[in-house]
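>> received
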Amino acid sequence: MPSSPLPFVVALSGLSSTGKSTIATHLPLIFPPPHYTLTILHVDDFYKPQAHLPFRAGHLDWDCTGSLDWPKLEAAVRSWRAGKQVAEGKVNPQPDSDTGVAGGGEGITQALVEELRGEFQGAAAAASQRVLILDGFLLFTPSVPSSFRSLLDLKVLLRAPYAEAKRRREARSGYTTMEGWWEDPPGYFDTVVWPNYVEENQGFFVGGDVEGDVDEERCQKEAVKAKMGVDGALGEVLRWVSGEMVTALEERGKGEGRRALPLTSC
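>> returned
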């Protein structure tokens, strides 16, 4: 009798406007049923009420870990891991629409999606795979509750150069929130978004330089995979994330296989 597929949680984290939501929404197209069952949870659905958000530099801070309802998010992930359905709704269904990333995405074409689907068809899927994709920011940094971080099987950090991330963020007209509509005030990226990202992620980089080299030893210890995206090359980021997911699933499968081997005597 076939065993139920084990849950596998992928955290797509990183700086605002690096294409996380675009990558997340394309993964189910590359890994379709029956081999894979992918669910997407968007962290934008787990903000605290606006009245409870912290402030930074005189502004409401939507871009720090303190802005999220971690108990609620953790409960949703635990519920999914236990085999229950979770809602996939989203406040901002197309968060990158003002940057030209959403829909097809920079460098993401139908031909690429079909190519990757063919390349990974059946990979890591001798049995069906049940995967949860978390699309958010600051999902596994030090200030995130350790009880939540322990639920993550693959931690992916998507990067972007400061200038490119700022251009994308400031090109957005605004965001739909639970309470209404939010527009970044002038200077918000430099006084809120970027400082939060640097403070939370600098430990993953040599000398704390988030635009420099990844600290391989630290990332290996924390099981974090980091990738610098380049303008117009989101397709290559999608290829890389897909490959990392398959590799991690295959490694998990090998580990399960080793534990399942019968004991023999000499």
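>> The longest helix spans residues 234-260.
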